[in-house]
Amino acid sequence: MSEVWGEIPRLYPIRHTFKIKRMEKSKLITIDNYLDSHYIHRSNWLRAAVLGANDGIISISSLAIGVAAASSTRDPIMLATVAGLVAGALSMAAGEYVSVSSQTDTENADIEREKQELKERPVDELNILSQIYEKRGLKKETARQVAIELTAKGALEVHIREELGINEISKANPIQAALASGMAFTVGGVLPLLVILLAPFKGLEYWLYAFTTVFLLILGTMAAKTGGSSTSKAILRIVIWGSIAMGLSALVGYIFGVNVLYYL
């Protein structure tokens, strides 16, 4: 260890040396916790949650704005919003479950195929595994030895990971995705519903647009912080596309100019 620290002043600026030493003393990185400071293990549920919340905010706000533009009272807007919130949350959860389950089915089918190939052509599979490690930079002899040792330890596991790219982090989880998406949609959809309840009816669509933009800013910031990505890029993506959706919805309401009460 002393030799490693002896190289740090040459490799890093002095101001980082003490910071690195403090980090080493405060938390020892091991095979059990090395992913704790990374974000990749959050990708599955974070994707579903951001999609659900974004869809909840934008779709419910857009629906309310479109109805508000063609309505003279608050009741039709409330009715449409609540119906859209319930239907949207259930549809979002069901859609996530079905789509991610399809991914899981595909993964399982490939795993079964890999089992069969290992049973029928073990030598070919070993050669393929060796070539994979060669392409990653190992020497031919080293790659062969690594392939042999890993195959002896667990042939199916290593082939699933190296050939198919399936591991504990990337493996699809339908229940997790469905719950994250449905709950996030509900939370996102409730926000514009609160605006409809509390904001003045006159100019309601403008109140919705303003508050929805704020909600999208908050969502973009939270998503970026949780995923460790650029805050500005996340905010721009969400706000721009959300604004387009709400603008088009309001435009439809103004173009048709239908009094909703006439049909109720």
Explain what you see.
By secondary structure, the chain is mainly α. The chain has one domain. The protein is 78% helix and 0% strand. The chain has nine helices and no strands. Helix 3 runs antiparallel to helix 4 and helix 7 packs antiparallel against helix 8. The N terminus and C terminus are likely disordered.
Rg measurement, Å: 26 Å
Structure summary, number of beta strands: 0
Taken as a percent bin, the fraction of beta residues is under 5%
**Helix/sheet category:** mainly alpha
Residue-averaged pLDDT: 77
Helical proportion, percent range = over 70%
Main beta sheet: none
Shape assignment: elongated
Order of helices and strands: HHHHHHHHH
Number of helices: 9
